[in-house]
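Q: Hi! First time asking for a complex rather than a single chain. Here are the components, and I think there are two in total. Is that enough to go on?
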Amino acid sequence: MKHDRLLDDLGDLAVPAPDSLLPRVLVGTGIVDGYVRRTSVLGDLLVAFGANGVTAVELAGDPGEFVTRYERRFGRRAIPVDRMPPTIARHLDTAIIEGRPGRLPVDLDRLTAFQAAVLRAAATIPRGEVRPYGWVAKEIGKPGAVRAVGTALASNPVPLIIPCHRVVRSDGTLGDYSLGEPENKRTLLEFEGLDTGTFEALAASGVRFTGSDTTGIFCHPTCRHARRAGAAHRVDFASEQEARSSGYRPCKVCRPVAA
Amino acid sequence: MSPQGLAAELADDLDRAFPDLVRTLQDGVYSGALRMVGNRHDAEEIAQEAFLRAYRALRAYPAERIRELNPAAWVWTIAANLCRNHHRTRSRRPVTAELSTDPAEARRGPEAETIDHELGDRLTAELRRLTWPMRAAVVLHHVVGLPYEEVAAALDRPVGTVKADVHRGLARLRTRLQEVTP
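A: Yes, that's all I need. Here is the structure of the assembled complex.
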């Protein structure tokens, strides 16, 4: 039989699948998690996600080490992908810039119920404001668990998106931070418009709350309602007790608590 | 790995063996989809969707049923359906729009273009002028390399019909290719 050119040409129409196909399929099935590279104020990030949302955020270092740490922590493999599921793609960059999950799905189901509760409470702190660890403890109904709150925040798997950088010590010092150097906490808060120097100086002088003598309400010093009060009407308090005995009531927005 | 070996591993531990299934079949599924639907972007979408559906189906199958599968033929029953649905939707739109709106194709540079031209641009275009049953049968048998029995299973048509479609498809391609390149 003579050589058939047409059949050869048809056979030559077979091409290799693009490299992106296998990772997309494996992440789509949920057999493995995926991760992508993103940018932030603190530099490049690696952001991992599974079927239920974002699972981890780290400063981009060696991808191999990231994958090893990820597997140790979650017992799952993470592979690089060039594309995210639509809901994550749509909301991830906004969540990183604004420092809150917003509509981004974040998977907290792999954490303990306590840590998930701590992170959900931290996620409600507005941009450019800070709250003490004790505030988070009280918000989740465990006012005595201040140290445990600190531990839970220190191992926040999704920093930036859940803004653990907005939780500080009750003495006003910024405290530890898990994403890179401790100074990153200050960098983030300054980027969000908080004057950390002024905040720390106020705290160092013993001020824990500030009130307004026109409203008779006291707040955390960085609460937007506290900052709205004019300097002439601002009253400083060293404790909740002092504020209350002066006839002030706590702000319903920032629910002031010191640890 | 043999089709039976792969099926047995899928039956034993789906999550462990599924990546092997994708690695084994992805070039064929992608190539076949590409030659049936005509552009890289849609071909990758179809290949991805076919494997995702395959995985979900396998999750629900009892191990005994998985063991009896011929993985390539079975995945192609899903992929061929997706290609046909795509063909139905797209055939209502003008072909020129489809040809010009593929960014992946445009990004490949002049060298790849030239090679495609020499090898098969003409052939690709003529393939896409075939009726759906002929095109699907020719692509599955001669591009993907499935035996007639598997093509028949994938397209849910009798083997005899599939053979006739391939035969008539090839004849039509030969005539048309001779018409344009004398």
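A: The interface with chain B takes residues 6-7, 9-18, 20-22, 24-26, 28-29, 31 of chain A (CB under 8 Å). Let me know if you'd like any chain examined more closely.
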